[in-house]
Amino acid sequence: MTPFGLEEPASLAEAIKLLDPQDPSIRPIAGGTALMLMMKAGVFRPTRLVSLRGVKALSAIAPQPDGALRIGAMTPLAVLERSPVVRAHAGVITRTLRTLSNVRVRNVATVGGHLAHADPHMDLPPVLIALGAHVEVAGPDGVRTIAVENLFAGYFETVLRRDELITALMVPGQAARRAAYLKCTTRAVHDWPALGVAVSVDPAEAASARIVISAATERPVRLAGAEAVLRGGVDEAALRRAGDAAADEAQTISDGQGSAAYKRALVRVYVRRALAAALDGAR
User: Could you read off the pLDDT of 73-129 as tens digits, one per residue?
Assistant: First the structure.
């Protein structure tokens, strides 16, 4: 690795001031699990890193008066995995984290870093999109909110400006909704998936279904066409039709986890299975 400077601010305001919107070689670092690998491989050569570990205000998990759950961006994934508050609020997050990479990574990687990295193979983004979550983002001009669905601009790209930081994740109350996440990997269950499918549905209101796929596409995407199939009701035939519609709609890509055609076939099967799993959980 090439030499670089390291800043360790104690406040969010100080951290934002250390970022330069015109200089891509200055980067914030949270857990660093992905960034350090990029640096070791020579893919990224920073001149300065701004560590967020000293910003203690970004690590809390707090239920909100409106029923939402606020999760600080610096919360380690392992803390999220073990949190009874998170499990009670949206158990699908807990279940998903148990197969996300390995425990060593989850002990270090953070919620905000996981989202900001924008790797389409990540497990949490499709789940959070299915849950209707959004992030709070702070920058020199103040705070704005972005739906997780709108956070990703492309392969390893987000809509964040270089002088903005994710400060919190907000997961709305789920009420009667039930969710499931399934992934298909070519090797061990914690490996990079060839496809990830997250769904959320209210069994009493099928028109509210959300279907999201990742890994097979350049970014996590909702499949509006597949969702529309369920507006007439949810039965076994409707689940098969939703799977077919999802396969027709998905713009899959080829990579080391499989060809575009292979992933399209996976979409057809796994969308149906994920919807069935969510509905079985409701029953």
Answer: 999 999 999 999 999 999 999 999 999 988 999 999 999 999 999 999 999 999 999
Residue 192 pLDDT grade (very low, low, confident, very high; cuts 50, 70, 90): confident
Q: Average pLDDT for residues 234-262, to the nearest whole number?
A: 95
Give the whole-angstrom CA distance, residue 46 versus residue 63. Answer: 37
For residue range 199-240, list pLDDT tens digits in order. 999 988 878 899 999 999 999 999 999 999 998 888 899 999
d(CA 71, CA 69): 6
Handedness of CA 215, 43, 77, 20 (dihedral sign): negative
Q: Which domains are assigned to the chain?
A: 59-171 (3.30.465.10), 178-282 (3.30.390.50)
